[in-house]
UniProtKB/TrEMBL annotation:
Highest rank taxon of the organism: Bacteria
Start and end residues of each Carrier domain: 10-78
SUPFAM superfamilies in UniProt: ACP-like
Protein name: Carrier domain-containing protein
Pfam families to which the protein is assigned, alphabetical: PP-binding (PF00550)
InterPro entries to which the protein is assigned, alphabetical: ACP-like_sf (IPR036736), PP-bd_ACP (IPR009081)
Protein species of origin: Streptomyces chattanoogensis
Gene3D superfamilies referenced in this protein's UniProt entry, alphabetically: ACP-like
Taxonomy of the source species: Bacteria, Bacillati, Actinomycetota, Actinomycetes, Kitasatosporales
Length: 85
């Protein structure tokens, strides 16, 4: 499942980035701020990736969501809840 989550997260992030990057060109440890992701686009990204992976946003507190600053952190967080729909 983590490969599927990573693939879904990369695709969702690539869709909201201001620059045109292919999903596999996004480093797992790249900070969202350095990628130019706005707070609105972060919300759109997280909502999209949760929908794609069937992981409900209710599993995360506001603090959890704010702490997710890289693609790798999002993938790790979603992986922990992937089987809890």
């Amino acid at each position: 499942m983590p490969d599927t989550i990573e693939t879904a997260a990369r695709a969702a992030l690539a869709e909201v980035l201001p620059q045109d990057l292919p999903p596999d060109a996004i480093a797992l440890d790249a900070e969202f701020d350095h990628l130019g992701l706005t707070s609105l686009n972060k919300v759109l990204f997280l909502t999209s990736v949760c929908d794609r992976t069937k992981v409900g946003l209710q599993h995360f507190t506001e603090h959890d969501l704010a702490a997710m600053r890289t693609l790798g952190q999002v993938v790790d967080a979603l992986s922990r809840h992937a089987e809890v729909n």
